[in-house]
Amino acid sequence: MIEAKNITKRYGDKEAVKDLSFRVERGEVLGLLGPNGAGKTTMMRILTCYMPASSGSASIAGFDVFEQPLEVKKRIGYLPEIPPLYKELTVEGYLKFVCGIKDVPAKSTLKQVDAACAKAGLTDVRKRLVGNLSKGFRQRVGVAQALIHEPEVLILDEPTIGLDPRQIIEMRGLIKGLGGEHTVIISSHILQEVSATCGRVVIINEGQKVAEDTPAELARHVAGDQRMLARIKGPAGKVQKKLGAIKGVNGVELMEQDEKTVVFSINCSGVEVIADQLVSTLKANKWSLYELKPASLSLEDVFLKLTGK
Ligand SMILES: Nc1ncnc2c1ncn2[C@@H]1O[C@H](COP(=O)(O)OP(=O)(O)O)[C@@H](O)[C@H]1O
Ligand SMILES: [Mg+2]
């Protein structure tokens, strides 16, 4: 559905995107993951015909982004980094206005506004002024304007940036629900975000692709073993020794300690392998388990592993 081939974009001497290629199949949600300045926004602007690449080619639904921009624009909805909202319009008024810009036939405008409001979770606030909405709802209006002409492809640039934790969860749910019916690319600099919403991830750093895989495979590849964090009440040295002796545990590291508890990082091939023995070891020694969770990898960890720096 989306294909980018050897895209390079130079700003003056600076190569913001270097020889980047990827494909997105119909109905897939692809995450473009990379730190600030990696070239995510640049790549999205190229795919949305906002600006040309310096070299390479790209197509959407078989239409060339450079040769057939009108055909491409009909088929994509774009949420830019800063959504172009009019604060003095109501949600409904703004979306009707967008319908006009996107050549939605007048007789189907209301139907399209209804559908976009329903999908983006805006039905309750559609009579309100955009300027009076919370950041989370404004971001949804941004998603709704991208959806309004029922495009096959959605390109969402950092859709959760600036949202509070609850709004982030809601937005992730919304994005997940868009897959299947739409083909989606989202960009993010947050690893957990793409893991939570995307079927596949392309990691870019300094304009270049450094990895491409499913979130699960990436995590496995990068992490090798799984790491679990366990907060335990018990004597640090003894606990560490006993945990280390459990079958399936490949290493135990002391991470932090307070007056009552100690946090260990346990290297193992999977929590299911060690769970029973962990619990029985703790019980036999009358130590208490306060917390057990997978240690999440940060984007920094991933880059260090992938780039070997
Ligand atoms: N219009 C521009 N002129 C010059 N440099 C730019 C321009 N837009 C982006 N850049 C540079 O290109 C690189 C990639 O930027 P961008 O695509 O915005 O990255 P991201 O969205 O991943 O944060 C950055 O180093 C940025 O400073
Ligand atoms: Mg950006």
What does the model show?
- This protein has helices at 40-47, 69-75, 91-101, 109-120, 135-147, 165-178, 191-197, 215-223, 236-244, 271-284, 299-307, and strands at 2-11, 14-24, 29-33, 55-60, 63-64, 76-79, 153-157, 183-188, 200-205, 208-213, 226-233, 249-257, 262-268, 288-294.
- The protein is α/β, with parallel strands linked by helices and 309 residues long.
- The chain has 2 domains: 2-221, P-loop containing nucleotide triphosphate hydrolases (Rossmann fold, 3-Layer(aba) Sandwich); 224-307, MTH889-like domain (Alpha-Beta Plaits).
- Strands 6-7-8-3-9-10 form a 6-stranded mixed sheet, sandwiched between helices.
- β1 (2-11) and β2 (14-24) form a beta hairpin.
- The two termini are 34 Å apart.
- The site of magnesium ion (MG) has 5 residues, from α1.
- Magnesium ion is lined by residues 40-41, 81, 157-158.
Question: In brief, what are we looking at here?
Answer:
The chain has 309 residues and is an alpha/beta fold. It folds into 2 domains: 2-221, Rossmann fold, CATH 3.40.50.300; 224-307, MTH889-like domain (Alpha-Beta Plaits, 2-Layer Sandwich). It is built from 11 helices and 14 strands.
In spatial order, strands of the major sheet run 6-7-8-3-9-10
Count of discrete alpha- or pi-helical segments spanning 4 or more residues: 11
Beta-strand level of the residues, as a percent range? 25-35%
Which stretches are low in confidence, meaning pLDDT under 50 for 5 or more residues running? Answer: none
The percent range for helix content is: 25-40%
Indicate how many domains the architecture comprises: 2
Find the CATH topology of the largest domain: Rossmann fold
Query: What does the radius of gyration come to?
Result: 23 Å
Q: Name the CATH class of the largest domain.
A: Alpha Beta
Strand and helix order: EEEHEEHEHHHEHEHEEHEHEEHEH
CATH homologous superfamily title of the largest domain: P-loop containing nucleotide triphosphate hydrolases
If you average the pLDDT, what whole number results? 91
N/C terminus separation: 34 Å
Going by helix content, strand content and strand pairing, the class is alpha/beta
